[in-house]
């Protein structure tokens, strides 16, 4: 389409700083005939303290009318744990049925990895985004007493599991290696595990070219550091995906580079793109935040909206920028944004 | 005590092979005046296929009368996922109230780590062993249909959380660095997270010398590979502990070295010691299994029973053996057992 109506939620901590750079690169990469209309939403800790509001219904309804959402980061130590995460970030993922939480991991040449030997890493995690232990089911009985019982319920449906598994097969099928690994813990979580595994096996029969593999989540973390090159596409539940993608980010140059898309493949709702990192309140305002993860999330956003050439230009710019960083003095958030904006226009 | 009544459950896959070496080293290290009585229990896949039995009540009752249990590994591809794990391994942990699942991680000099720069790693994970997502609560509705709903319930009690948190503070207090990190995901799993965090904070007031820290489980996996030296004692729930300790094993020389104790600190039931690794059916019978994790589990067992000097002798023998391995030809399971048995007597 020749216009992009973008909702922007800078959010908390470094969110605002990195989103500014994402928008800078987005404006720079877009051809002049694509009209970019951005609308900023003031949501997060500041708003919560000022008005008590987290995500009012009117704003949720309004967000729906955009082509996509760019989000910085949500969460602040001044707000009790979970209030903003569940009331805002997860509420958006659930309300807009972002059932594919897509998180690519690639070790670019020249970037730092804690792993010896610099393995060849290039995989993508398809994390389920609307079910599992993230549903908010659960509760607490006799709270705060010596007899408290607190529960958390992981909810998994045939619909929810099948659609994300199918999406993952499609992605695996489209990649050169055509390999899909299911990660779960079906030797302990037998009910959910059985649903995931049987769905994985059944849908797999429709994709005879895709090689499949199953790993328990604990074993998957081992391979992530000893043999990450074995992964091509991983499909997993919401919580295991959360854990694995932070670890994946750590081994592929750090959380400063990890992009993500919360995708509603049906197109009924806008998809939302955000860096995997959090609001990092400890470095907010210092100019130390690396905006690259947000810029790469903008590339995912562009690809999702059909602007493949522009997405690729951003990714090339990031790869070149990372290669050029070697030994150079550290830059500010703004300087990195400038460097990337320059490269995509160059 | 001058006698040890030991129950031995070799179990599946490489379990039998590594347990044989553990017993070899145990016999070698014990002074002649300590009487060792072992009783072997035939439990696992073979027994299940032969008789349909997993853990009969009579055997559970009989196991109770031992001072400790040495277990090899449980799980076999010929048995549906979860049947042996839940019916045997987890049943023992739950029946014998093994609420402290203790898993030390130490990077010995000279051992292989996938991490560049060989960080200084020496921490212990206190994993809760009798609650959380491991309780077997949950179920499936409309199983196998397009309308299936499968749930898993994490159950956390004030009693269960407090006793393991207290145990972790005691361990942190006794270590030179006196640092305790709680790992959870209290921004999403708010009910369980609130119980864990408030218990952690409240009990912590009784241990003013212990420095405390909180990490979300996803962030903890990052630090495990980028800054593992920051950890001293970690306390966490059953599932997060499962995941973190496999990752910890991977970064500290691999799963071939990781020992564990399923401890009932109250002494009401025998504690159970086992390598963290699984039954590894792919290498069973090849002589490739490294029995070191089992031998180190034997050291934990001896320490638990008050044989500190013998425990330390085994740990020294392992450290020396690892140092001597450098560049040497690979050994069989049996040869490694022999080498360790020789060192503890030498
Ligand atoms: C902030 C938090 C709720 C979130 C999650 O757990 O999904 C984050 O860790 C992520 O991975 O996007
Ligand atoms: C085999 C399995 C049930 C077990 C667990 O999940 O606890 C294992 O992974 C472990 O860590 O001891």
From TrEMBL, chains A, B:
Q: Which UniProt keywords apply?
A: Amino-acid biosynthesis, Branched-chain amino acid biosynthesis, Cytoplasm, Leucine biosynthesis, Magnesium, Manganese, Metal-binding, NAD, Oxidoreductase
Question: How is its cofactor bound, per UniProt?
Answer: Binds 1 Mg(2+) or Mn(2+) ion per subunit.
> PROSITE patterns from the xrefs?
IDH_IMDH
Q: Which reaction does it catalyse?
A: (2R,3S)-3-isopropylmalate + NAD(+) = 4-methyl-2-oxopentanoate + CO2 + NADH
EC number(s) reported in the record: 1.1.1.85
Q: Does the keyword tRNA processing apply?
A: no
Annotated Mg(2+) binding sites = 218, 242, 246
| Positions of NAD(+) binding | 278-290
Task: Just give the chief location class.
Answer: cytoplasm
Q: Care to name a GO molecular-function term for this sequence? A: 3-isopropylmalate dehydrogenase activity
| Cofactor(s) the protein requires to work | Mn(2+); Mg(2+)
Top enzyme class, one word, equals: oxidoreductase
- NCBIfam families tied to this protein: PRK03437.1
State the similarity comment: Belongs to the isocitrate and isopropylmalate dehydrogenases family. LeuB type 2 subfamily.
HAMAP family for this protein? LeuB_type2
Stated name of the protein: 3-isopropylmalate dehydrogenase
Give the organism, scientific name: Streptosporangium nondiastaticum
